[in-house]
Amino acid sequence: MILTIMMVTVMRRKKIDRPQSSTTNSSPPPSPIIHSNQEEVNLVIIGDSPVEGIGNATHRQSLSGQTARHFSKITNRPVRYWSFGVCGLTAKGIKDCMLPLLHQVVDIPTGNKGRRHRRRCSNDRKIDAVVVSCGVNNVLWGQSASAFGIELKSLLISIQSSPGCEHAVVLVMGLPDFSRMPFLPWPLSSVVGWRGRALKEEMERVVEEMQLDEDGDDSNEKTNGSRRRRIALATIPEVQDVLGDAQNINTTNHPLLDHLRHDPAQLASLQIQDFFADDGFHPGKHGTILLGNLLSRVYAEEIGISVL
Length: 308
Fold this sequence. Notes:
Layout: H1 2-12, E1 41-47, H2 49-52, H3 63-75, E2 79-85, H4 91-104, E3 107-109, E4 116-118, E5 129-133, H5 136-140, H6 145-160, E6 169-173, H7 188-216, E7 230-234, H8 239-246, H9 264-269, H10 286-303
Parallel strand pairs: 1-2, 1-5, 5-6, 6-7
Antiparallel strand pairs: 3-4
């Protein structure tokens, strides 16, 4: 509780922007690669403040907007996406408050007088991928790793069993290293970093456990040959390491910064602050681009798309 109060006190001194457009039910983003004759990728992003778009002036610049753009680019298909996120939610809060919104994605108007009837997405709209952003608020609330693991697994199982998500790839966005965030003063950064690493390890354990369950359980394999439910962890790299690789004259451009491939001057001038919003905590600027790129690459690997 003391840790949470300290975090709130620090963040109140920072400017926190919210996107100008709602992230609750957004339309497909403009994309450099749109083919009208290709089947749409249906993407749902669900979670906490990065999904809400905190720290970004527009939804296009936010985690969800950038993720959708990179999904379109890497799959060479148009992307229709829905983004459901609220600042401050724990893993349990996401399950309680955001999961019902995911269920609404498959509510399709039928019948007379605008009545709504839930159809199975496998017949109408199936979800191809669900991106999950959670865990940061569990860290800030001082939750134990074991308690977080229970919440996380319950959330992920609920997503996998949701209508339309039977064959979706569930992508869990990893936790960052809090000790290296620009705005956290010492010793708060050390304390939050220590707790964050414990929950990060628990997140990795839960995802690995669920992957092993899938590999060893044939109950998810359908008789018609459709694939098993899949889950993957998108491990967030250290921004300092990405910058070091990208700005090293002896190496090529880092793949997560390929949007700067043709702008070596800007690439060389990048600093860690350029990956965060003005509050120094939430992802913004090049940070949301990096995360969207990362998530799309993990998805591509899961569905067998070769990525350079």
